[in-house]
Inverse folding.
């Protein structure tokens, strides 16, 4: 990872906002990049540590960091296709079940990579998934809440609609919280609806009462095994949920020719 001189960066328009700072389209010398600006950053920033260790085609790449006046600049690859969330809720989304399976498989591979390194994302959702290559490929971003599995985690962390019951309950939790978030994200791709559509307190009550998004809201002809994947992965019992490797095995049963999927 490079140590970058802040004077070599030219910030442009804001293209996104993470949990702890805005993201700008920028130039690093002549290279187009994305720069996340974090004010008053902690010296042991988890996000920097985890991004610097990540080297996977489905995780946004960190070129390096710059520090100036107690402000941290994360200089990352520019992923130019917008967020998955923006596509889902665009005026006339034209994607089909093949696109969904392709995206889901890539998300699962990226999170599997993290889990094999004993890392948990803890805030997986469509807004934190960036599209590129005419929407055929994607990159997972936003590692503010990422933690090592060896750490004891009971904090109520994440975005309510995607949070597993054990996270809501302040119980100790594992990488299976990402599996739950994956299931909600997959359902959202299939339904083109916001999960629950309620305020945080109502979501909390619904999740703990066992309510889950309705499979009847799925808009595409969907294999029964994919529906079963959803119900398994958002089980209230983390031990009953698939691993990311299990999820990849299921999705690989539906071969997709990625080159034919541009939007």
């Amino acid at each position: 990872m490079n140590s970058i001189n802040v004077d070599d960066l030219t910030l442009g328009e804001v293209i996104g906002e993470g949990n702890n700072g805005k993201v700008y389209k920028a130039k690093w010398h002549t290279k187009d990049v994305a720069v996340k600006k974090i004010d008053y950053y902690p010296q042991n920033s988890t996000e920097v540590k985890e991004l610097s260790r990540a080297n996977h085609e489905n995780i946004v790449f960190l070129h390096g960091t710059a520090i100036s006046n107690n402000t941290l600049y994360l200089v990352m690859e520019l992923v130019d296709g917008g967020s998955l969330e923006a596509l889902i809720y665009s005026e006339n989304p034209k994607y089909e079940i093949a696109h969904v399976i392709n995206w889901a498989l890539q998300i699962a591979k990226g999170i599997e990579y993290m889990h094999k390194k004993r890392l948990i994302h803890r805030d997986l959702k469509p807004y934190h998934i960036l599209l590129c290559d005419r929407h055929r490929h994607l990159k997972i971003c936003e590692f503010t809440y990422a933690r090592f599995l060896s750490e004891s985690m009971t904090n109520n962390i994440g975005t309510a609609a995607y949070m597993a019951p054990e996270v809501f309950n302040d119980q100790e939790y594992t990488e299976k919280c990402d599996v739950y978030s994956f299931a909600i994200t997959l359902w959202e791709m299939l339904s083109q609806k916001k999960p629950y559509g309620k305020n945080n307190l109502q979501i909390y009550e619904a999740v703990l009462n066992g309510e889950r998004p309705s499979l009847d809201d799925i808009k595409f002809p969907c294999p029964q095994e994919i529906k079963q994947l959803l119900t398994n992965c958002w089980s209230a019992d983390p031990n009953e949920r698939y691993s990311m490797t299990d999820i990849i095995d299921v999705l690989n049963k539906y071969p997709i020719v990625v080159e034919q999927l541009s939007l």
The mean pLDDT is 90.
